[in-house]
Amino acid sequence: MTALFINGQWLTGEGSEFKSVNPANGETVWSGEAASPEQVNTAVAAARQASTDWALLGFEARTEIVRRYGKLLEEHKEELAVTIAAETGKPLWETRTEAGAMMGKIEISVKAYNERTGSRSSDMAGAKAVLRHKPHGVVAVFGPYNFPGHLPNGHIVPALLAGNTVVLKPSELTPHVAHKMVELWEKAGLPAGVLNLVQGEKETGIALANHSDLDGLFFTGSSRTGHLLHEQFAGHPGKILALEMGGNNPLIVDEVSDIKAAVHETIQSAYITSGQRCTCARRMFVPAGEWGDNFLTQLQQAISKIKVGGQFDDEAPFMGSMISEAAADGMVAAQANLIELGATSLMSLEKLQPGTGLVSPGLIDVTAIADALPDDEYFGPMLQVIRYTDFDDAIRQANNTQYGLSAGLFSDSEERFNYFYDRIRAGIVNWNKQLTGAASSAPFGGVGASGNHRASAYYAADYCAYPVAGIEADSLALPATLSPGLTLD
Ligand SMILES: NC(=O)c1ccc[n+]([C@@H]2O[C@H](COP(=O)([O-])OP(=O)(O)OC[C@H]3O[C@@H](n4cnc5c(N)ncnc54)[C@H](O)[C@@H]3O)[C@@H](O)[C@H]2O)c1
Ligand SMILES: O=CCC[C@H](NC(=O)CCC(=O)O)C(=O)O
């Protein structure tokens, strides 16, 4: 299998063999060889070689190629959705929306380039104040498995538009999606070396991230890996590092009038993508007392009816498989650990079929251990419930996390929302809406251990180019008056 794309050529990797599997049935989807460290070097060298011409090509010509890629995405939308579903276990209806988001990214990124970066000029005495932007040069893009198309695409499209060249290292769990995506870029007529693909596991990632000739690295993945990269980039202030990482996201529920809607938004917050979205609600604060009891009863009824199943089942499931059996085992172990610490299971997260990542959605009451709760991101369909009596204390607990990605409030009171908004610490703050499903037309990123203040989505343009400010005049001219103490005669 020619797994790598370097300098416009598909090549066989010289590293060790690895494969991806359909997590809903264990069948192999893709197998190939990883890039060797020498091939990673070749990929970075190819990107460097292509860098000047790509930058000099100009924004309009680059946009033309990027739009051609967008058209190809449209033509291959279904094929891409099927590939994503096969490799991730996500239901086909959901991967169709991922392919749609990839298409939408093109025009949003063109607009963002012009609005956030681009060029401007204004008059000043005897000259013009000019602002332009330049690309960084060669950047590495690292992607996660949960949105193997949309999220790397969300770095690649703005990076290329701005004039950077790219080396992509996708998740080792989703190499096939990356392969398909790069094939479309090739078909769109991207010049050789402008986008390079190195496949492989952690070692390939380490070789790429350590490369001395990178000008930047755009990462979406776990907080653990992001922190390692941050340490690695310490002492290199000249290199740009954008980190989009995980969260331990809180959702506070007030005594709202429409319980059914609150139940629906909770399910969309916690269980969509089998809980494998960075924005998923992980901790839910529910009022103690009768209203809260009633809400939880209705929530449990609705959760018990969530259909879990294969991504291609005729009767579409809401939740597909988790990414792997190992990830499912990890969630079962996390739940057992919370129970051992003193939590009470309301609905048990259980493996549904050995050898797969299929699990049932879990709900667990952690009120008894609220102040000793591990501040971990449990990246799966398990929502922790904390009963509260005091709204301020719920906000305090919601903020009691190293992370700060998304947070939300369900409340009929705008005043309450404003109070919550002023006190909550997160990059995404929603009111009466699910925590997931962020728009690409807005910035996307978190604070604390969730990011490094380089928001993605609409603001990705910001980390893809640096500003150059200039004062310009067509010709040299003496000023009307010279500074005191100067004589030119
Ligand atoms: N904030 C966001 O925008 C966002 C979006 C999606 C996912 N996520 C987060 O991503 C995580 C799930 O994705 P994942 O498990 O694929 O993440 P991950 O950190 O395990 O892997 C991400 C990428 O980094 C590579 N990698 C792993 N270890 C490395 C190392 N030591 N050096 C260099 N590269 C290395 C992987 O091979 C992969 O390509 C969750 O924590 C989720 O919250 C965040
Ligand atoms: O898993 C993390 C991403 C979740 C997703 N966010 C986006 O799609 C952000 C928009 C963008 O990057 O264009 C969500 O909020 O569901």
UniProtKB/TrEMBL annotation:
GO terms for molecular function: succinylglutamate-semialdehyde dehydrogenase activity. Coiled coil: none annotated. CDD domains: ALDH_SGSD_AstD (cd07095). Pfam families: Aldedh. NAD(+) binds at residues 221-226. Keywords: Arginine metabolism, NAD, Oxidoreductase. Pathway: Amino-acid degradation; L-arginine degradation via AST pathway; L-glutamate and succinate from L-arginine: step 4/5. It is an enzyme of class 1 (oxidoreductase). Residues 10-462 form the Aldehyde dehydrogenase domain. GO terms for biological process: L-arginine catabolic process to L-glutamate; L-arginine catabolic process to succinate. The active site is at 244, 278. Catalyzes the NAD-dependent reduction of succinylglutamate semialdehyde into succinylglutamate. This is N-succinylglutamate 5-semialdehyde dehydrogenase. The gene is astD.
